[in-house]
Design a protein that fits this description.
Elements: E1 18-23, E2 29-35, E3 40-47, H1 54-65, E4 69-74, H2 84-100, E5 103-108, H3 112-118, H4 124-138
Parallel strand pairs: 1-4, 4-5
Antiparallel strand pairs: 1-2, 2-3
Helix pairs in contact: 3-4
Amino acid sequence: MSAADGLPVPVVPAQFQSFLAFDFGVKRTGVAVGNRFTRSATPQTTIAIEGDRRFEAIGARIREWQPDALVVGVPFHPDGAEHENTRKARRFARQLNGRFGLTVYEVDERYSTTEAHALGARDADAASACIILEQFLRSLP
């Protein structure tokens, strides 16, 4: 994660230890939970709810896991250019921040779904959320 990748490297306070990550999709949103100590992520059940109703399910996950912050994968074209899904994912990140009051970090998620499929994931959305979160966790000091 660097400025050359489309997103700046985040400054994450040391007290932020646990994270809930999302691979946003219009119809399905992959979810993973992880922490700074192990720098690993675990897939959770994908949220297959569209529109604002998805935030009810997300709220339940936040209450269950009580993360210090949230992470959202933001897609870009291979050359780093933005597209419609880039804007949708960023809007989703802003909505999470506004609804739940947690810090939201954006991660360049180019190729996460391709990687999830290559690894043979049964739930590519949840696996992509894990890949996104582990990429984020590896970037932390």
